[in-house]
Amino acid sequence: MTASTPKPEAVIVYSSKPVLRKGTDMTVVSQNPPSTNGIAEALQSFAGRPGAGIFLFLVVFLPVISFFAPQMLQEANLAGILNQMVFIFIPTLGMTIVIISGGIDLSVGSVIGLSGGVAAGLLGVGLPLPLALMAGIAAGAVRIAGESHDIRILPGLAQRRAADPDVIRGEETQLLGALSAFSGGDHIVCMPGTHSKWVHVSGDTVDGFSTFMTGELFDVITRHSILSHAVAGSEAIDDAGFADAAADAYAAPAMVTNLLFRARAGQLLHGLSADAAKSQLSGTLIGVEIAGALSHAKKGAVVRLVASGRLQHLYESAFRRLAIDFTTIDADDAVRKGLFAAARTLWPLTQETQS
Hints:
The chain has 355 residues and is of the alpha/beta class. The protein has 13 helices and 11 strands. It is globular.
């Protein structure tokens, strides 16, 4: 009889590298042996990461608080918490980017507190609003490091009301220059642009401001919507058509989307020209903007238009058509005055230099 060859034993191998054993059938099931306590290892690994302690604390803390205060996790309360975090999150995001890029700038929080405190304190002792704003903005100016000259970046303005948050970034210098042209009473400062700014000023106090995306919406609608066909080849604005469209939109702002489509329908049904269609679209958007901006205006408030060039002409035409009292301040002149006022605050001129 021939002795039978014993069948090779089957071996299950767990290894980080392939292993060959002569005379065996080997099956590699996994590169690493199974863990006898995978959950514990995972928790241990997570606990070693930065910020894990805070996360675990919140996981335990929130259910406990919610048990004793059921309103904790209600939608209104969570929305309030998030709204309160926004003004911290925005500068923190910028600081994080700076740190990631290899720099360190931890002065943002102190700048926010300093500039706001300076402006509020000066208003409290009776300093006129333009000077108080100028001092607050100048106090928050950040110097650019590594430059041979003293170059500063001026901060903007923030409206932190949860119901209508808004920001001004760049137009604050224009506003400073414009405020020097008047004093006392109620005023509404209109600064047209891609994002038009309307600032409500009462005496020495900024009651609030609103941003209207009029210029950007006009660009999007005339370039990237079906209405782009209606204005193709347009070269000019028809003043009369523009003013009529502004009046219609001001009278019925809730009909704005219908009023916009009339430019397309007028072209298809009545041969409306490209110039007339463009005038209608521009007038409609500006008319709706004016209606919204003045919807909460105080009775008797004077509109101060800060503009120049084509936008000055359009807004003046709309105001005249709507019988709205206004005065015009040259935008370029306002910017120069605002920047000069800020510079004079940052770098006071000595008597010797002035002479």
